[in-house]
Amino acid sequence: MRLMTWNVNGLRSALKKGLPEVLRKIRPQVVLLQEVRAFPEDLPEPWAAPPRWHVTWHPATKPGYSGTAIWSRFPIDVLEYGVGDDGEDEEGRVIMARTGGVVVGCLYLPSGSSSEARQAVKDQMLKQFTSWAEPWRKKNEPVCLAGDLNVAPTERDIFHWKSNQKNSGFLPHERAWFADLLNRGWHDPVRDQAGDHDGPYTWWSNRGQARALDRGWRIDHWLLNDAAHAQVTRAKVHRDLSIGVSDHAPVTIDLSLD
Question: What is the pTM (predicted TM-score) of this model?
Answer without folding.
Answer: 0.97
